[in-house]
Structures
1.
Amino acid sequence: MSTRDRWCQTTLLALAVIILAPIAMAGQLRIAHQWDPDVDARDRAARIFAAEVERRLPQTKISIHARSSLGIKPVEQYQAMLDGRIEMSIFPMFYIAPQIPEFSITLLPGVPATTEQAQLLKNSAFHEHFQAFCEGKGIHVLTWWWLPGGIVSRDREIGGPNTYKGLTVRSGDPNTDLMFAALGAIPQIIPSTEIRPGLQKGTLDVALASFESLVSLRIFEHSKFAILGGNTIYLSLHPLMISAKVWNALSDAEKKAFEEAAELADAAFDLNQRDAEHQAVATFRSAGATVRPMTFDEYQDWLHIANATSWRSYRNSSDAARLLFDSMLQSFVNSRPNQPTREPSVHTTKTIRISHQWPANIDARDRAARVFVKEVESRLPNYSFQIHPELTLNIGSVEQFDEMQSGKLDMSVYVLAYAVKKVPEFSLAYLPGLYPSVEIVRSLKGSQILDQVQAVANANGIHILAWWWVPGGFATRNREVGGPESVKGLRLRGGDPMFDLMLKKAGAIPVALPSNEINAAMKSGDLDGALTSYETFVSTRVFENAKFITAGSPGIWMFLNALVISRSVWDELTDDEKTAFEEAADISEDYFAETQRDAEKRFIETFTRVGAKYNAFTYENYLAWLRLAQETAWKEYIAVSPQAESMLTESIATILERSRPR
């Protein structure tokens, strides 16, 4: 047996060990919260935080326990952090306002008035005073998650302050309850998880809650009226907190890693909240509720009541409360003048065009590109971007690489596999079976192997800004796919020459075409099936012509869809501009990774809803395809060039190192 064959066999066994190893290990740190996993933005942002910490500190493991699965009730999580039962928690801080009245500052009605105002408080004098107060109470605030919300009613139409007399109302905070009590309402103090049962039983008439909770806790099922949008009196802080004892035990380097991860989680959370109101309005209307925004006159009336009741009571409750309230207002006053001013640009506005092949606003690659654009434009006001989805610039999917090389196209969301005829080393980003899960491929961030891929890209006229990895599977017209033996005779699109080698060895007939042509080819009968991303299968409506699908993890199909910029454009940027682009790219990567967490689920649900049969990809299927891949695609890739062999070897070493249980 040759050295190369022994290496391939060893690699196969090593990858098998990784796949067989438990996906979740007992974490050193636990995050507890009360909301649904993957559905609620607080849970999703917590997962971004955990992933970013673990990427920076591989020996630190963070487990997330949603739906109060540790058996600790929401209102008890503060005490659980103090006594060491948990290390971290996400919960509305006003839950403990009955014990620590100063925490009512996180839900005072009408202040802050908007999420934009709340963000102005970040890193302000108020933030410093608030953090110091929290640490004095045994906790450290890591994130700055403010949630806007609305008011819902079980069966009576509501509006301004004069419409609540005699109603039982859940506001969530004692000071806000003072305002409703002054109006003749009957306040009830319960966590948000008890709102839906209260409305259902009739023990609760009205509830104030975040848009996020109103949807994820299915409160719309028992609400006939809702005031959502417009001006709001409900804006609350639900931060990710860590025990001060645990925080103080961290090294400076560990604290820095936690803070960097928190910044990325903050950015992702803020983006999610921008859609929360729209989603809440649409959900309540679909459920039959009458929905309208709060008018400005109603808002003004609420502020007068709040000033005379909640605000006054809070400010007079203690010296610490007075300091927090006054510093909050002063921070609002100081925020605008203290914003850093930018020197006028000597250039006129620079317009950059981004081209790609996917549907606008539907496909996650388009949405992630818009996240990137927004983040760059917020940092560099003299830059503007034009996104051209679905090849509206009339540049073909494959040809975009040439256009960027020549400098005729500024940027693209590009599938590097399309360029492998010119740069065969790019096939590394698509080798079948090499990247069995999103978690494993995300662990490569900052590694030497991605530096090598970047060097190849730079040498060929492009620069990779964001690394968006998409998992995928099979969809076919006429036969269920499992192991390699099941594809014999099928005309299949693999997406890359190396994939095609493997498919041909299995007896399939490879068909080369870009992913945006799969649906038409299956409809015409020229194609029996395809491997591509779950995202593409859904956004390009392949479900219209597929009768069988195969999905699951570990998988053999993981592609890199990179946000790429022409090297000529990149080289003209200043160092500050490059930093702004890279920061925006990092945020878009976290956003995109979050969308891919449920991509497989959406793929399965979308296809089975229209009658397709779902087949789960098994570990045995994966191992059979992996053996075939190493005999064909991997062996062929090694022969491309000494650089390709070195890159694959480095990839395997990095995956093994970063996936090893610690």
Note: Residues 651 and 657 are 10 Å apart (CA to CA).
2.
Amino acid sequence: MAFWQENFPFIKGFYDDRSTKFLELMDKAEASIAEIHADKIYTSKEFNKIRTNFTNIAKNLERPEVREWLNSTKEMMMEGRKNDAEDAKLTSLVERFSNLLPSVNETKTLTDMLWKSYEYTDEMAPLVEFATEQLGNASREVTSGNVAETEGLIDKHNKTMDKIDKKKVDMKNLIAKGEKLAAEGKAPGFLVERVNSIKDLWTNTMNVAKDQLNNLKDNAGNWNTYTEMCVELTGRIEVAQGQINDIKKLYDMGAAKDDHIARVNNANDIKAEVNKKFDVVLASKNILFNLADDGMKAQLDAELEEFKTQCKVKENLDDKLIWLNEFNVKLVEFDKSCKELEAIVVKDRKILDDLIKPPQPMKSNDRLVQAMDLREDIDGQLIIHSAKQSQWDSELQPEGSEDTAEAKTFVSRMTAVVDTLGKLTKEAEGGADKFGDDIVHICEFNAGKGRFNTWIITSEERASKGWPAPSKMEEATQFMDEANTWKVSCETMKNILDSSKESAKKCTLPADMEKELAGMVCRWDVVHKSSLEWITKMTELKSHWTKETETLGKVTAAMNAKPGEMTAEDLDKQIETVKEMYKKKQELMKKMSTSEAPTPEALGL
């Protein structure tokens, strides 16, 4: 004990030095731990230095003889002494060490994990470089202008795919190793990121490589598809144009309807085929476009635009079918109009025939008015026909092979209608003129009829009454003059009746007038006959009366003559003659009248 006491300053100094170095070692340990726990990603070389430093420090801290020497030295030095400061210092040193030790142990575990992670990153670096290189090869921009160039690109790309296939196992094992490390405790975040990164890189590399291969194969296949579909699309377009060219106007309306339905269905099939082929061409063009250079892109665009222009044949086909349907509708309406005109022509014919020969009695004025109305109606039908003819000429007229028998039938029907309307127009005009003339002739007839009716009353009365027996020669002369006047009136009336007959003949319907005229003629005949009879009677009577007067004068003269101028015998003969003449005159007077003949005294005999 005397040794420790005698050498206490020296021992204390050595103790203090060792304590200080121990404190410095703990400071270094804490600094190293902080460096390991720092939020920083080191290179493997940098971390290896940090790990080696920490490992050495940890080994020095974990040497048990240091702690034992400190404790034993402290006890010898403090034996028999009371020094709170030294106790506190040593207690603090030991306590700090005790607190540091778990952190050191934990950091040792972390350091091992981090070192494995950094070793892993070093191990994955060549594969990352390989995957990156192959990704670049697979994703590099290439161009192709034909199937041969694409096939050459496929050969080159297959070499890249072969390299990738050879590294699949190594990459799979590396990723599995990384995932296993990442699943362990204390695995650093950057390890998870690196593992995920290489997984994504590898997945992306394989996907890009596969996609590029598929793109190249699609490109190679679509060069043939594009060429074949362009040919087929051109063929479908030509078929569609052929359908347009084949569309014709049909004048058989039933067949035209069926033809339109069939053409619409066929057109729908053709348009569907055109759309289908165009879609394939477009899809192929888009695939080829991905690898095409600027020149080929311009060519593909130009070809597609040309096809788009040619595909307007679909709209043209639709327009032509719409035109065909409109034609069919117009033709049906045209046929309807033709039938209406044909029916009207028949009706007009019937109306005109009924005007020419009315089934029922009809006034001349009514016939004229209806004939003029019919003429106006026919003019209206001619206007309608003209409009329909213009429509036929501008919209419905057949061309070339369309001029079928059915088309000719429409033409002949329209021609028949206009010809018939023309004839009806002339007949209606002529009929109206005749019916107008009828009114004039009827007026003439009625004028004669009026004069006849006025004349016949007095004439029939004269015929029925006649004249009385004249009592003297003057009366006989007067009656004779009256009879002559009556006869002249009969002859005048005969001229009027003849004129009325001519007027009746000029009428379109003379039957009633002729019947009426026949009645008037019969009455006239009776009167005329009577007038002739009375003239005969009057003439005979007057002639006989004149002779009688002359004979009587001779008798009177003989009776007053000188003797010897007339013998008694001659005188007796004359007297007998006068008597005979008187008797005859009496008989003649009886013929003239139902009244008694005048006595000789009345006659002055």
Note: The first helix runs from residue 2 to 6.
3.
Amino acid sequence: MRFQLADTAVQQRGGPLHCRPPLLLIPRRQSVRTRTQFPPPLHGPLVPLNPKDEPDGGLLRLAVPLPNEKKGVAAKGAKGVRSPLIKMTNPSAPCFNLVTFDAKDPWESLLDHAKPELSLMGLKRLEPLLKGQAKSVVVERHYIDKDYRDTFSHFHSKRFNTPPSRCLRLHFFAQTVTEADIINGAEAVQKNYLGYSVIRPTKPNCIGRTLISHTLRMDGKAHMSTCEEEVNLVGTKLMVRGFPFISQDSDATVCAESSLWMLLRYFSNRYSWYPEVLPFQITNTASHHAVGRRVFPSSGLYSWQMAEALRLQHFSPIIYNHQAPQYQSNFYHLLYTYIESGVPLLVIVPGHVIVCNGHVSDYRLPMPPPSAPPAHVYTSHFNRSLVVSDDNCFPYQLLHAGGPTQAEHSLYKWDNINEFIVALPERVFLPAEHVQTAIEKVIKDLQPMSASLHGKRLLLRLYLTSARSFKRHLHARGMGHPDVERIYRFLPLPHFVWICEIADYQEYANDKKIVGELIWDATRNAHEPDGLMALHLPEKLIYDEGAAYNCPQSLKVIDLKDPKSYLLFQSNLHTL
């Protein structure tokens, strides 16, 4: 059958063609003036059909007469409109279902409440975090997850047997909550919210985008990079703090892409200037350097490819290899320094990559014996475990120096770490090893400059931070003297600075207090000797007034009377 345009009112107005939309295609034998008669909107109650009469098991239909029926007279055998346009989900599977874990509904019953999306493997993966901690869960069906929809649109939808395009989302609560509590936004709902986990219809790994409170796994002192996320549950706004997690789907993403996603989602959640990156975008970065192999399904990435993916997202990545001669003696110290800076790391172990976002340190341990100079110790000496997220396991595992001591610990140990990749901001030009070399030259002359530090073994803590964050916490920390706070507030600083805190061991271990710090310009290169921005000692403050105003170095000295110790800087990491 041939077709023609139903509306030929096309005018040329001295430029592009302008048409009156829409132009309808209709059969040629029909009059051009005939317009398509759309049926009136359907109104009426929804009634379930008898499952015996319907092969679809009792789907809902609108109970209105068919067009050819007389008013009030239904067609023979009809229970409602036989229009295929109105078709809804069976009401026995509601979009939202609130489950309270008790003797009738134990943790294992979640597998029935969340089927078919949640698999036994997925349940076991959530179990170490949430079993015994979560008292209620909301099962949210038909959830459209932006990350899964991204991989579905670009990969899964092209399969012959396609999985569903929608997900299921689980919301966990530490105490029993009711539907009224959630709808009314009761304070207890926010207080007891433990986070969420998206369950994808992918096999064998169904755990999608997940953000569970970091407090669930840390049974002792821990220092972790975390971010906040706002969650909407039936119109109620909830907040959760933790570290993003996702498992690989073994097709579009494997461990490398999943670890990159966790790292990049942390940055986009915490810092507004980093854009949100979806899984397929990460996988697609491999197309720039696939070198004769296919991109999909993913077969993994080399460490240099992961670093290149970070570079394409406007980071300045550095790969640290344990076997490199320049890193063999300080490899774990550098890893700790970047973690202390609030920069999560991609950690490469044999055949796998995980994300490290925190550490557990034990300051009850004694200082090492002073066998040789220098007469100071870095806080990395007291680090005993790393906090990692392994996409093959669950978030917030502890990776101990000597290997696992409990079943829920990571299977790896420190000796298994071959490389780590740090994603430095673009405006950080000086890496940790270079700034430490420069700082060491200043530290060795500290004791002759300060009578109160003379004869003491100093504890040093090195980290990177932004000048904005450093200044924002000046007043709350006290800074030991009002003049120090005042000068720091009005001293121009580069966007990023390296800080080396100076502390007495006992005071640091017991009260988390320090006696001074050294500030170094993170935008200098390794060969410039004038990177010192300020040196704060108990008796004096030395600061560079020249570099602050883009002039040659000009050091000013201010004597401080009645100095006091003050709180260390804690904005980079969330401390439990």
Note: Residues 1-92 have pLDDT under 50 and may be disordered.
4.
Amino acid sequence: MKILIAEDENDARIFLERRLQKEGYTVVAAANGADALENARQTKPDMVISDIMMPEMDGFEFCRRLKADEDLRTIPFLFYTATFLDREDEKLAMELGGERFVAKPIEIGRLLDIISEVFETHQDDQVSPADRPDKSEENLASMYAKTIGRKLEKKVKELETERQALQESEEKFRLTFENAAIGIARVDMAGRPVQTNPAFQQMLGYSADELNKMIFTDYTHPEDAPVDMANFQKLIAGQRDNYQLEKRYLRKDGEIVWANLTVSLIRNEAGKPQFAIGMAEDITERKHAEEREKLQREQLIQADKMVALGILVAGMAHEINNPNTAIMTGTQQIKNMWTSLMPVLDEYYENNGDYLMGNWHYSEIRERLPGLLDGIADGSKRIKRIVGDLKAFSRKEDSTAMGPVSLSDSITGALSLVSNLVNKSTRHLSIELDQNLPAITGNTQQLEQVMVNLLINACQALADSQKGVQVKTAYNSRSKRAEVFVRDEGVGIKPDDLPYVTDPFFTTKRDIGGTGLGLSISSKIVTEHKGTIEFQSAVGKGTTVKLTFPVNTG
């Protein structure tokens, strides 16, 4: 038995064709009514199974023409449709000469049973639809027109419903896009943001028109641009569907904005990349909070170190002070002994001339020994002073304890602590301290820490010991503030780095162990003392740090 299939849907046609072949039928297939009619005339099938909604010629017209052909009109015609399912559709199909009207979907086993029934009915010479009383062409045309018109009207309503739903969906998307709390941008294949929402524009400080003339690397931090571009190139090449990263944007006013960026690739129906959607969540405040938390952790670690240093220094002070006291006492006793012996030794020298005392002549010993003893005594006193300063600097102290502080004393104490570094770094140290400078309200230990940091930075900036360091204090009568100046003739700070010198963990000395905390902590301490800190620098000429503090009045 030969069956002709008319079906425009490719997968459905192939499935039915193979299933019928498996049942032993010979199958001829066509994708529309016109081709199916031509095949029917050439192959004379034993049955036709036809869809209704097809291009070029639909199933109704195909059936009408088949039944109008004297050579083909007895071929059983089975309508098989998923679109025309109304009673009027079935009525028209049967009036045109259809044998059966089968609605999709249907179990394949049931369809095979129907095909067998149609063949049996046809072979039993029962009345064929072609032998039924003819309906007039005018009547059939009217039924056909009404059926098609009804179907078109239904389709128009469906399309209108879809159009309204699409409009509503587009409006919802537009409202979501325009009112989203995070920045959204549609980026073309060149990286140009062709459409941006207000949140994205506000985050970067650019208008939509300004952004439309840029590519995303134009407003990306230079350090983050290469990574972002590498990911974007993989995206538009179709090597990945999305990527996510934390990056820094540069606002129009130069401010840095941290964002959590997610970029997704949008493809067309053929799977070809069309554009990308980027969603940027502003995480600047979170980043700042993380930096503050990290700084606090580092400060706690530093505080713990200072406590440990205080304990260590206290123990060392005891161990150093005991032998140092012996040195100081012994030196004084030797000086007293020498003073008592000198008249006797001088008399012997006058009567007998110069003589050896061990490997030295008495005349040399008489000249040099008092100076040597004075040097030992001064060195011992300096040891005692340094140990005392270390104990005072590292002593655990309430950071909120405020009282009258002499800035000159803080600078003197700091110079004592770093005197070894200063002496190694420069031969030109200039100190001008205003002895009449009014006291300020502050924390002695914290202010001394600031001075130590500034002096260390000044020394480390010097290229050689011929370069100088100047420390000066003064009172500004107009602003009624005490001023401290620390100047160095060092390498200077680059203009691009100058705005960030007090940022936590920013350092240009990481190669020599810099942590970037010294100036950050110093700046925080100065601010807590209601003071200001300013930097002026020229590359190759040096840096000046100016501190100002309100003085005590009354």
Note: The chain has 15 helices and 19 strands.
